[in-house]
Design goal:
heterodimer, A: alpha+beta, Glucose Permease (Domain IIA), 2 domains, two-stranded antiparallel sheet, globular, B: mainly alpha, 7 helices
Chain lengths: 336, 265
């Protein structure tokens, strides 16, 4: 009997498969790979350990250049946002990781170098994404196709369909064999950037910004600290709206942030709203874009009525104005 | 001293048999490693499905902590201790620690895996009884699980079963992806697709049959030995924390990380 005669070979093969899989696809394997690279002074392709859970934790999302002029005066369409996010993420990749996107552009008759061109890049990327829309209706699959290639993306999509359940970039990335880790990170960054670009604004766009994002001397502690959001001067009781659809991750009160809400918009994008006088939603609630979620106030560590609005990409705070350059700082900004 | 099975003394019949017999002589090395790797893969597949629930739990705990310390001026500064942006990293780090702890609990016993040559009856009509391994056979272990049940005797092997199933599915998924994407340029789309599907099912079954049951048996043996060593009074509490740690992972592995039927669609 074959199985009996080949038992040693079969057991060896299956054990080897498991070791290969653990080496490439577990944090424990990544620790081994990093240790090996450190010991032998070689480079490793192991991702940051925390990125083994959601794809982007522990990695950084590239901060994009200034937005194109067309996007300064209005919220872009989802196709424009996706193209811009993909273009920005492509630019941040090393040349080797860009190869699938460049090959795909060649296939579609688009000059590959235009994809990363600062001026023509967003339009060229949009043409490429439009060409893929027929085969890949969902944005997650389309972006995967750009960063991993058409065939791997189609394979991943078929596998996710076979498994059933909701489609997500994380599930698509899981289907791809070793060697596609960089593509998955690139795709996650593109989706995070495009989602951030589609965000609305939590209060009237005319609300003056009294303290911008960045280092400042804290108004009550009198120490130099990072201000991880923007302070928008609004009267107490002003309605605060959700900047995009999402799930309330946190609705709580403390002596620093006051009454605070944190919304998870998916794709590695979260927003926080602090110092409210009243919270209108509870943790776990699903909210829609524009829905009233809180009334602003001056609770917590605050010197006057304002809304502290914070945007995080891949768990790192970024300047919300990087995604809404149409807004301008109020003259004579004061600290709150 | 464990007995390492040596190569059989049967005469060589083919190249395949020779290679198999040669590799078989190293089973004491690669089988424990394979078991360890399979459990590690399964534990990660399960932990990966729990990370968002962990994030929700961290958020709730941090809210409660902030509300409590914020009540007193002396401790109010602790609210900034876990800032809004560090919570996600904290939740992912907790998932990593949970996974590595489960690896230690479920995968490390695999390193104690040993094989002995199968005992053969001296006379055809007289089966060998009371052999050295009889006390650690499936039958004997299950009997003790039923007669002297403890959390460790039940939870560890059951969690290992779930984790091993999830691990086998992950290996099969990777085999399918690797075969399809690397063979497609050589053999075309349809042959590569069928080969990838066939090999994925073979990997799923092969890993389960070759390594899966051994991992479960090894954990059962380890749990049984630990409970025996603890004595009848302390056996119930022996390894209780570890059981609480691996039980959610075992459930998540079966519910969310073992899409067995997807390989047949």
């Amino acid at each position: 009997m074959f199985a009996r005669r080949a038992r040693g070979l079969l057991d060896f093969t299956f054990a080897l498969l498991c070791v290969w899989c653990a080496y490439h696809h577990t944090p424990a394997g990544a620790i081994l790979r990093r240790t090996g690279a450190w010991a032998f002074h070689t480079r490793t392709t192991a991702r940051p350990l925390l990125a083994y859970y959601d794809g982007v934790s522990g990695t950084s999302v590239p901060m994009p250049d200034a937005l194109p002029a067309a996007m300064l005066t209005r919220v872009p369409t989802s196709a424009e946002a996706l193209a811009w996010g993909t273009h920005s993420a492509l630019k941040a990749l090393d040349p080797k990781a860009r190869e699938p996107a460049l090959a795909l552009a060649r296939e579609e008759g688009i000059a590959p170098e235009t994809l990363v061109d600062p001026v023509r890049g967003p339009a060229a990327t949009r043409r490429l994404l439009d060409a893929l829309a027929g085969d890949f209706p969902s944005e997650e699959a389309r972006v995967t196709a750009v960063f991993a290639g058409r065939v791997p993306a189609r394979f991943a999509l078929q596998r996710v369909d076979a498994e059933g359940g909701a489609l997500s970039l994380e599930r698509l990335a899981k289907q791809l064999p070793p060697g596609f880790e960089g593509s998955s990170v690139g795709a996650a960054q593109a989706l995070a950037l495009s989602t951030a670009l589609m965000l609305g604004w939590p209060v009237a766009e005319s609300a003056p910004v009294t303290s911008p994002f960045g280092y400042r001397v804290h108004p009550t502690l009198r120490t130099r600290r990072m201000h991880t959001g923007v302070d928008l001067a609004v009267r107490s009781g002003t309605t605060v709206t959700a900047v995009a659809a999402g799930v309330v991750r946190r609705a709580s009160e403390d002596s620093v942030n006051g009454r605070v809400l944190v919304l998870d918009h998916g794709r590695g994008v979260t927003t926080a709203y602090c110092h409210n006088s009243e919270l209108l939603v509870k943790a776990g609630t699903r909210v829609e874009k524009g829905q009233a979620i809180a009334l602003s106030g001056s609770t917590g560590r605050s010197t006057g009525p304002h809304l502290h609005y914070q945007l995080e990409l891949a768990a790192r705070p970024v300047d919300p104005f990087g995604f809404r350059t149409a807004l301008r700082m109020a003259d004579g900004a004061t600290e709150l | 001293m464990p007995v390492h099975p040596s190569s059989s003394s049967e005469p060589s019949s083919s190249f395949l048999t020779d290679v198999s017999r040669f590799l078989g002589a190293f089973r004491w090395t690669f089988m424990p490693l394979g078991l360890l790797a399979l459990v590690a893969v399964g534990v990660h597949a399960a932990a990966d499905t729990l990370d968002d629930r962990l994030l929700t739990a961290v958020d709730r705990m941090d809210s409660a902590f902030d509300a409590w310390v914020g009540q007193f001026p002396a401790t109010a500064s602790l609210v900034d201790w876990v800032s809004l942006e560090t919570r996600t990293r904290l939740a992912r780090a907790l998932a990593l620690c949970w996974e590595l702890a489960a690896d230690l609990l479920l995968a490390l016993p695999a390193l104690g895996y040993r094989e002995t040559e199968a005992a053969r009856p001296v006379e055809p009509w007289q089966p060998v009884t009371a052999s050295a391994s009889a006390s650690s056979s499936w039958k004997a272990l299950l009997r003790r699980c039923l007669r002297r049940p403890t959390p460790m005797r039940w939870v560890r092997p059951l969690a290992t079963t779930g984790v091993v199933l999830a691990g086998a599915c992950t290996v099969a998924r990777l085999v399918q992806g690797t075969v399809y994407l690397s063979w497609r340029p050589l053999f075309g789309d349809v042959p590569a697709d069928w080969a990838a599907r066939g090999l994925a099912v073979a990997a799923l079954c092969g890993v389960s049959v070759s390594l899966g049951w051994r991992a479960v048996l090894r954990n059962l043996q380890h749990a049984d030995a630990a409970c025996d060593a603890a004595g009848p009074r302390r056996a119930w509490s022996r390894g209780l924390v570890g059981c609480l740690l691996v039980a959610p992972l075992g459930l998540a592995a079966v519910w969310d990380a073992a899409p067995v039927l997807s390989f047949l669609r």
